[in-house]
From TrEMBL:
PROSITE patterns for the chain: HEAT_REPEAT
Keywords: Repeat
The keyword Cell division belongs to this UniProt entry's keyword annotation: no
Pfam families named among the record's database cross-references: HEAT (PF02985)
Family annotation (Gene3D superfamilies): Leucine-rich Repeat Variant
Native source organism of the sequence: Nyctibius bracteatus (Rufous potoo)
Gene: Ppp4r1_0
Name of the protein: PP4R1 phosphatase
Gene Ontology molecular function: protein phosphatase regulator activity
One GO cellular component term: cytoplasm
Keyword Iron: no
Length: 270
């Protein structure tokens, strides 16, 4: 029964946490018994079971309960198979979504060597616009996961493609995550490549794209500021914030805070 398998998946994370806390008593139970079930259910015939399996996997990764060897030898290979060009459409969309969410949870080397090449391929998927939409919506997070060098060498060309996509929803998603992408690049790339690209989005024929671009204008401009003098920084949750000055910190605690938070476009992208 699919409902039984779904319920089982919902119990995996708390069981895994218990086993981790009791590791001296159960040193290999999670890796031998539970992890294979999670991986297997990623390809279950029932979509609710697959969804529960994906959610369980993300929780396990977020809690750092999955060994690096299992990530590289079990999780990544199955996701690469599911997101292959000849994969079933529904499986591919799900795999792309989980790959994007995983990017911020794995170490940079694993993301760059195992997932980034496939992500770049999926950005150009001509068959499913849903796949390109997911890539565009999560583009900033992937850039942040791989760092400046890989972003400028591999991802910026793909970002240009998505910003000129024939589907306006793709261009809108790019406008929404523009600040996160810009923040990962060097000042020269920001000035010479991303600025003209942003102008094209502000001048887009679709008003929804233009509106999203204008909403991202302030955050994008902020990436040109010197963080040491402007006090701007990106929080771990993807929000752009302004550090209070020393004077603000030492002032009366009853006074309202001068912190200003602008939501990162990658956080808003759905």
């Amino acid at each position: 029964e699919p409902t039984v398998r779904t319920e089982l998946m919902e119990q995996i994370p708390p069981i895994a946490i218990f086993l981790q806390e009791s590791r001296p008593k159960f040193p290999t139970a999670f890796f031998e018994y539970l992890m294979p079930i999670v991986v297997r259910y990623l390809t279950d015939v029932n979509n609710q079971v697959r969804k529960a399996g994906q959610e369980a996997l993300l929780i396990l990764l977020e809690q750092d309960l999955v060994a690096q060897s299992d990530i590289e030898n079990k999780v990544c290979p199955i996701l690469l198979d599911l997101s292959a060009p000849d994969s079933d459409d529904e499986y591919k969309v799900e795999a792309v979504n989980i790959i994007c969410k995983m990017a911020s949870m794995l170490n940079r080397t694993t993301v760059e060597h195992m997932l980034l090449p496939r992500f770049c391929e999926l950005c150009s998927d001509g068959k499913l616009f849903q796949v390109r939409k997911i890539c565009a919506a999560n583009f900033g997070d992937v850039c942040n996961a791989v760092g400046q060098e890989a972003t400028e060498r591999l991802l910026i060309p793909k970002f240009f493609e998505l910003c000129s996509d024939s589907v306006w929803g793709m261009r809108k998603a790019c406008a929404e995550c523009f600040m996160a992408v810009s923040y990962t690049t060097s000042p020269e790339v920001r000035r010479s490549k991303l600025s003209p690209l942003f102008i094209s989005l502000i001048s887009d024929t679709c008003r929804w794209v233009r509106q999203a671009a204008f909403q991202s204008l302030g955050p994008f401009i902020s990436t040109f500021a010197n963080p040491s003098s402007a006090g701007l920084y990106i929080r771990e949750d993807g929000t752009l914030s302004i550090r209070p000055s020393t004077q603000d910190v030492t002032s009366n605690s009853c006074q309202p805070s001068n912190n200003i938070t602008l939501m990162s476009s990658s956080t808003n992208a759905a």
